[in-house]
Design a protein that fits this description.
This protein is an alpha/beta fold. The protein has a domain of about 130 residues: 3-Layer(aba) Sandwich (Rossmann fold), CATH 3.40.50. It contains 13 helices and ten strands. The strands form three sheets. A five-stranded parallel beta sheet has the order 5-4-6-7-10, sandwiched between helices. The chain has a three-stranded parallel beta sheet with strand order 2-1-3, sandwiched between helices. Strands 8-9 form a two-stranded antiparallel ribbon. The longest helix is centred in the first third of the chain and has 23 residues. The chain starts with 7 loop residues before the first helix and ends in an 8-residue tail after the last helix. Bound molecules: NADP nicotinamide-adenine-dinucleotide phosphate. Keywords: Hydrolase, Multifunctional enzyme, NADP, One-carbon metabolism, Oxidoreductase. One of its GO terms (molecular function) is methylenetetrahydrofolate dehydrogenase (NADP+) activity. Pathway: One-carbon metabolism; tetrahydrofolate interconversion. It comes from Chlamydomonas schloesseri.
């Protein structure tokens, strides 16, 4: 911490260092390193930048990176075939599908097709379900919310028995953040877009911990914060700034200056939660690699059956099977392409 400002970059650097040590240990012991496959569909510039950053980060800690870049026009069957190929590839221990997917592709179907044992993003319903249930643990927890928890823990901020508010309830940040806080015995309230603003303010003012993940620039004001509370600001919102060459700058969901004056601890934007997301992705991948290499992956028979049932829904329909050639040709072609597309340093 610098004063009351949490240094997310420093915590993330430490996690990357620990992950690199784990990867080196696995390589020395088993002669293999963990592998992460990143699937991207379409040409969105922001998604391509995130994917490049993830691949570079993998290389830096010694994780092997695999990639499949599909065009915007790719069909759902083609995307599912790529996922299936990575599910079957023993050198791949983590699979990540970059979101958002093009509108014609069913995100649920694609995320649900990732093997639960390789779901390093933690978005598979089985992993989210386990996160929600008492006495169960997911194989993976979504990276951004877990990054928030690690920041709290490593900064020595108590969670058990404290009042926590999560602003936002999305599947990728707010909802899993609330589940995680609940698992760590905080008393959790979630506010969302239907919560009247005055009520959100009053609820936040009672909180010892605020996780702000609404995607609303500077929504949480100083008046919303209980003196001494911890604020983890997930938001990354561009606002106009004529002093910058780009014409904009990024701000969080909390008004930093106002909140910093009242809070006991606060993450900046940028430099707070952002660097943690990739660091946790690397750590999740290394943990997955370790589970596979040591043979410790444990998924119960019932859950396997459940997963197979889910996958069965994704298989071609009777009508498609009546003329299977186009489906099979697409699936085999894309799967082969994906396997061949192993990304190596410098190639991208
Ligand atoms: P999202 O899918 O748009 O969800 C936003 C959530 O905030 C929704 O649950 C929404 O409520 C709620 N919300 C919207 N306006 C609100 C308001 N005025 N008061 C209270 N709640 C409100 O966004 P997301 O994917 O969760 O991302 C949230 C923010 O985090 C974004 O700025 C995003 O860029 C950032 N982010 C950062 C990282 C990182 O690594 N740093 C990673 C992921 C996301 P409803 O459910 O009622 O619609």
């Amino acid at each position: 911490m610098n004063g009351n400002v949490i240094d997310g970059k420093a915590v993330a650097a430490k996690i990357r260092e620990e992950t690199a040590a784990k990867v080196a240990e696995l390589k020395a012991k088993y002669g293999k390193v963990p592998g992460l496959a990143v699937v991207i569909v379409g040409e969105r510039k922001d998604s391509q930048t995130y994917v490049r950053m993830k691949k570079k980060a993998c290389e830096e800690v010694g994780i092997a990176s695999f990639g499949a870049d599909l065009p915007e026009s790719a069909t759902q069957a083609e995307v599912l075939a790529v996922v299936a190929a990575f599910n079957a590839n023993p050198d791949v221990h983590g699979i990540l599908v970059q979101l958002p997917l093009p509108k014609h592709i069913d995100e649920q179907a694609v995320l649900g097709a990732i093997s639960v044992e390789k779901d390093v993003d933690g978005f598979h319903p089985l992993n989210i379900g386990r996160l929600a249930m008492k006495g169960r643990e997911p194989l993976f927890t979504p990276c951004t919310p877990l990054g928030c928890m690690v920041l709290l823990e490593r900064c020595g901020i108590p969670i058990k028995g404290r009042r926590a508010v999560v602003v936002g309830r999305s599947n990728i940040v707010g909802m899993p953040a609330a589940l995680l806080l609940n698992k760590r015995d905080a008393t959790v309230t979630v506010v969302h877009s239907a919560t009247p603003k005055a009520e959100a303010e009053a609820i936040c003012r009672q909180a010892d911990i605020i996780i702000a993940a609404a995607g609303q620039a500077q929504l949480v004001r100083g008046s919303w914060v209980k003196p001494g509370a911890a604020i983890i600001d997930v938001g990354t919102n561009p606002i106009d700034d004529k002093t910058k060459a780009s014409g904009y700058r990024l701000v969080g969901d909390a008004h930093f200056d106002e909140c910093k004056a009242v809070a006991g601890a606060i993450t900046p934007v940028p430099g707070g939660v952002g660097p943690m997301t990739i660091a946790i992705l690397l750590r999740n991948t290394a943990e997955s690699g370790e589970r596979f290499l040591t043979g410790a992956v444990k998924v119960s028979g019932a859950e396997k059956k459940q997963e197979r049932k889910g996958l069965a829904k994704l298989l071609p329909t009777r009508e498609q099977l009546a003329s299977p050639l186009p489906v099979l040709a697409a699936a085999v072609g894309v799967a082969a392409g994906a396997v061949l597309q192993r990304a190596t340093a410098g190639r991208r």
